[in-house]
Amino acid sequence: MSIIVNGRQIDLPETIQNVKGLLSHYNLENRIVVVEVNKDIVMKQNYETTGLSNGDIVEIIHFVGG
């Protein structure tokens, strides 16, 4: 599947089907993040039920302390 993440087109393995899987793929599952899929913010409790489809536009914002 091909999606756009933070402005860059990426090809995902077929095993990644939802937001939770995408965050795990990027090792962000234990971080505080804001996820937007096709301009809709996804609540954390919906990461597992929010599916991803070919052509989706995803924005992931994670916080960095310093």
Automatic annotation (TrEMBL):
<dbReference type="InterPro" id="IPR012675">
    <property type="entry name" value="Beta-grasp_dom_sf"/>
</dbReference>
<protein>
    <submittedName>
        <fullName>Sulfur carrier protein ThiS</fullName>
    </submittedName>
</protein>
<dbReference type="InterPro" id="IPR016155">
    <property type="entry name" value="Mopterin_synth/thiamin_S_b"/>
</dbReference>
<dbReference type="Pfam" id="PF02597">
    <property type="entry name" value="ThiS"/>
</dbReference>
<dbReference type="InterPro" id="IPR010035">
    <property type="entry name" value="Thi_S"/>
</dbReference>
<dbReference type="InterPro" id="IPR003749">
    <property type="entry name" value="ThiS/MoaD-like"/>
</dbReference>
